[in-house]
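Slide 14.
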Amino acid sequence: MRVKLPADGAWATVRDHLVERLKAGPGVIDGMLRDGLVVGVDGLPVTPDAPYVPGTFVWFHRDLPDEVPVPYAIDVVYRDEHIVVADKPHFLATTPRGSHVTETALARLRRDLDIPTLGAAHRLDRLTAGLILFTVRPAERGAYQTLFGERRVSKEYEAVAAHDPGIALPRTVRSHIVKERGIIAAYEVPGAEPNSESHVELVEHNGTLGRYRLTPHTGRTHQLRVHMNALGLPILGDPVYPLVAGPVPPDDFRRPLQLLSRVLEFRDPVTGADHRFVSARELGAWASYDGWENPSADGQ
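Slide 15: predicted structure.
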């Protein structure tokens, strides 16, 4: 778990802040510090008398209920001293959130690559597979996040959905999308000023299904899923659009959402190098519809 030390506060030590903030019970924080279970940005244990430094981060492991392992590998596409680019499988969350903590891309990569300072520069939905950019050095994370915030990363996605010859493609979809906290589905507001834009192309079809190239020009939550649904082409396996499906068991890995982050392209803000990364994953429903219904543990 990562904790950011607030910019304001009168704590003399990291220990004092954690005791007040976490309310973990008498002696718990002292025991964690004594056992070296709290680490700083340098990956070294935080000492019991470490001074409080506003705005910095500390990490620690907490006792958690067992999580169902996601039975698919996360592949490292590229790694240098500044960044790690990973190819994430479906069903694996990007960063700890809610009931997903250890079974996340960030937790796995920190452990497997032995980089405790690794951080995510952006996120993919748990149900979406494909490329994610991570940063190695906390001091450089903001520079990479700014690439996404200022739309200086070219992103290309792939999706499988029904093929409808009556829908004219390619086309650019623009709408005003609202995503409210605590509500699963985002929605469009008719007539409002557009705040989202996606370009949709049909790459090929087999008569029943189509393989689509999706290029988002903005980054609203669920944007591509909302826009495909608005076209009458909801992405195969989507449990939210057009209708929110009921909960499924945590070990049900059938029918993964057929959405893949295929390409990331950008100029590195630290090194100046031009990067272009392409996912090696294949959307299961396009390769084999029957196999998509019951994917094997070999990958998706």
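Speaker note: The longest strand covers residues 196-205.
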